[in-house]
Amino acid sequence: MSAPSEDAPPAPLVVGVLVCLLLSGAAGLIYETVWTRQLAYVYDGRGEGRKAVAAALKALKIAPVTSLSSRTSGSSDSDRETR
Predict the structure, then answer these.
(1) CB contact set of 43 (below 8 Å; sequence gap of 6+)
(2) Model confidence over 37-82: pLDDT tens digits?
């Protein structure tokens, strides 16, 4: 049995996974840009504004994390309302 050489190209599976990650990241950036631009018109009317960026970041980055953390901690929405 010979050890793999250092000059061997990466396995097709690794390349496929890297391409999928690249495409997923690009789609996420495009999605975030579209959300931010649409919310800028809602909040500001001129197509620019800090509130739109904050709303897009909350919707796309912070909300899924807080939702996941509440699911894993065992608390539910009804527990949160009674506190």
Answers:
(1) 49, 51, 52, 55
(2) 888 877 777 666 777 778 777 777 777 677 666 666 665 555 555 5
Q: H-helix or E-strand containing 22?
A: helix 12-43
| Torsion angle in degrees (nearest 10) through CA of 7, 12, 18, 19 | 120
Backbone angles phi and psi of 49, in degrees to 5: 155, 145
Give the whole-angstrom CA distance, residue 31 versus residue 21: 15
Token readout for 58 is 């909350």
- Taking the CA of residue 5 as centre, how many other CA atoms within 13 Å lie in the half-sphere pointing to its CB? 3
